[in-house]
Structure formats: C-alpha cells, structure tokens
Design goal:
The protein is an alpha+beta fold and 182 residues long. Helix content is 33%, strand content 19%.
C-alpha cells in the first residue's frame, strides 16, 4: 500500500534485539527492510554488513548470562602447598555437573590490592590518587588472596559453588561477575 513502517528499539537493533527475527521475515516475504544502527561503531558496522551479534536458538544474551566468575577466598593461615592444592582441586571441577569449560586464575593479596587501588583510588587519567592511600600502611588486602574461577554452564552454578565451598581451606565463595561478555 506504499506505507513506510518503523520498528523502534532501545539501543541498537544488532545487539540483544528481536528486530533481526522480524527483518528476516519481512525480507523473505519480498519487502524492503533497512537496519539503522543505534550509535556505537561496531553496531554501525554490523548494520552496514547486515550482520547480527546474536541469532539462533540460543542467543548471545543467554550464553552471556550463563557465564559466572567466582572468587574463592581461602583461610589466611594456609601454606603455599595448601593453596596450590586448592587450585588443583578447582581445576578438576570441569567434569562436575554440566560445566562446559572452566578456568582458574590465582590472585595474590598484592594483586588484589593493586586491582582495588586501580578501581577506587585513581583519577580519570588512571594515575593513582596517593592522597587517598597515604594513610594506609602496608597491604590491607594481604590475606585476600583468592582464585578466580570462570564457569560457563548450561545450568545453575549452585552445585559448583557448594563443591568449592566444601574444599578444606576455602573460607568463602562469592560471585564477582555475572553476565559479562568476553
């Protein structure tokens, strides 16, 4: 009938949008359709190439929400041998439940303190704001050494968390990040 219609979406039509499914249907029925990017350059490139970031029976959003990063804090009085043993036990978890992959990274107390300072005691240029840390003696996070465990699962991480928490020397298991793209 010569009418122009618009499917308006928040954000960009190539990122976490249902537009792509409609676009394919509209084009398959012989109609003209155009995808207009929302703003970011990677989205503009995707729209220009008629490329979509998430499509199929399992969307990128679903996969991202299944990735969890946990911090495994240990008792402060552990020896390095005991810490290494916990790391070895964590590496064996890949066969547990429905894990598809697992990665384990050790973070020392010094690394934890440097990460904390970078996140909370730096200015907009990334320089350390020493006036904020001047009164802090030593490393207040020296006993915060931990393992970071990234788990990609098709199911809930409850069984993995319970298994990790049951390991001798593990003090606490917390979620660092959930639903963050890699």
């Amino acid at each position: 009938e010569g009418k122009t219609i618009v499917f308006l979406t928040l954000g960009d039509p190539s990122v976490y949008s249902t537009y792509w499914y409609l676009h394919r249907i509209i084009v398959s029925r012989g109609y003209e359709a155009e995808m207009v990017p929302g703003g970011p350059s990677f989205c503009a490139a995707a729209a220009a190439l008629l490329c979509i970031f998430a499509v199929g029976s399992t969307s990128l959003a679903y996969n991202v929400y299944q990735e969890k990063q946990l911090a495994v804090f240990m008792d402060a009085d552990l020896t390095q041998t005991e810490i290494d043993h916990i790391g070895q036990e964590l590496a064996k978890i890949s066969g547990l439940s429905s894990c598809e992959s697992l990665s384990v990274q050790y973070v020392s107390g010094d690394e934890a303190w440097e990460e904390f300072k970078a996140a909370y005691f730096t200015d907009e240029t990334g320089a350390e704001m020493t006036e904020l840390t001047a009164g802090i003696e030593g490393n207040p996070l020296a006993d915060s050494f931990n393992y970071r465990v990234s788990i990609r699962m098709t199911a809930d991480t409850k069984a993995v968390r319970e298994h990790i928490a049951s390991l001798p020397g593990v003090r606490k298991v917390t979620t660092i990040r959930e639903a963050e793209a890699r």
